[in-house]
Amino acid sequence: MAKYEITIKKSAAKELEGIPKKDLRTIVKCIQSLAQNPRSRGSQKLSAQERYRIRQEDYRIVYFIDDKELIVDIVKIGHRREIYRS
User: Fold this and answer.
1) Which residue from 54, 69, 73, 85 could staple onto 64, CB 3.0 to 4.6 Å apart?
2) Are 75 and 64 in contact (CB under 8 A)?
3) Quick check: 16 and 8 in contact, CB under 8 A?
4) DSSP H or E segment with residue 34
5) Which of 40, 42, 39, 34 lies closest to 3 in space, CA to CA?
6) DSSP state, 66?
7) Which stretch of DSSP H or E encloses residue 16?
8) DSSP one-letter code for 3
9) CA-CA distance, 54 to 69, in Å (whole number)?
10) Could you tell me the domains of the chain?
11) What's the predicted TM-score (pTM) here?
């Protein structure tokens, strides 16, 4: 399996800055693992969109997969109670 390139939107990077340090390390490790397998066990396709989400403790990482270009684009990162709100 080819390795995917990880890109993070500016808004998602800003959300990442607001996460407590104790949770940040595991979230970054989870994001890095998406380069090897973006559809890993535990990831789910969101029904209304062409996006996926993966859980990391109380946080959710929402991302888009481009199989043609081998890119995983991190769209949103946040606490589970806030991630799906507009």
Assistant:
1) 73
2) yes
3) yes
4) none
5) 34
6) E
7) helix 10-17
8) P
9) 21
10) 5-79 (3.30.2310.20)
11) 0.88
